[in-house]
Amino acid sequence: MLVGKTALVTGSTSGIGNAMAAKLAEAGANIVLHGLMDALEGEALRQEFENRYGIECLFSNADISNAAGNEQLVADALKKFGQVDILINNAGIQYTASVEDFPVAKWDSIIAINLSSAFHTTRLLVPGMQKRGWGRIINIASVHGLVASLQKAAYVAAKHGIVGLTKVVALENAEKGITVNAICPGWVDTELVAGQFQAAADRDGVSFEEGKRRVIIDKQPMPQATQPSSLGELALFLCSEAAGTMTGSSLPIDGGWTAQ
Fold first, then answer.
1. C or N: which end of the chain has fewer Cβ atoms within 10 Å?
2. 41-77 pLDDT, tens per residue?
3. What's domain 6-187+227-259's architecture?
4. Which of 53, 59, 81, 155 is catalytic?
5. What is the pTM for the complete model shown?
6. Where in 82-214 does DSSP place strands (E)?
7. 53: annotated active-site residue
8. Residues 20, 232 contacting (CB under 8 angstroms)
């Protein structure tokens, strides 16, 4: 399905990003992996992808908290593959505090990585997609791109910004063969959130699974988390011709969170 295409996925050494990269690789796309890994670990992951999926792969640990790092990531991808057809802006960080106590440095970092990086990669890669008349941009937002939660000022602001950026770039490229969409997950079953589930279990003196259920149903009606592989399947669909007229959309996959 995607043989001959190249996909760049930020934050793809683990969790959601890794699952998305794997699904695209299964479909035949060459992959640019990116994340916070040292060069040896990254090389091992790159080799694993090539061996498992029979595609070409590049690993980068570029610092995407600034414009120069994003420019380096894109330059390395273009040097290796010549073009990037699919861009998934997935990298993100989190910090929680009331707005009056929110550290300025944390605000700056979250906005830089969760929002500004998507702007930089998009501005750098859209011209090539326009020239070729085909492209897929998928921004990983969150339910927090649609609704808010307490103590997440920077995260919610960034994710709302991602949804807005998605709409603008979709409109600007509606006649150029490029679709731009946002995926808005609720709870996702990753190692990153497992600590929150365990903390709830410890606090309430219950099993991990019960702690997990309590955390999830506090926000969403459906009492289970989304699997990363399901998000990968959704990304794969958005890259298909079946989704060729789906653009500017924000797609909740959130167990009913935003239906309330």
1. C
2. 999 999 999 999 999 999 999 999 999 999 999 999 9
3. 3-Layer(aba) Sandwich (3.40)
4. 155
5. 0.97
6. 86-89, 135-140, 178-185
7. no
8. yes
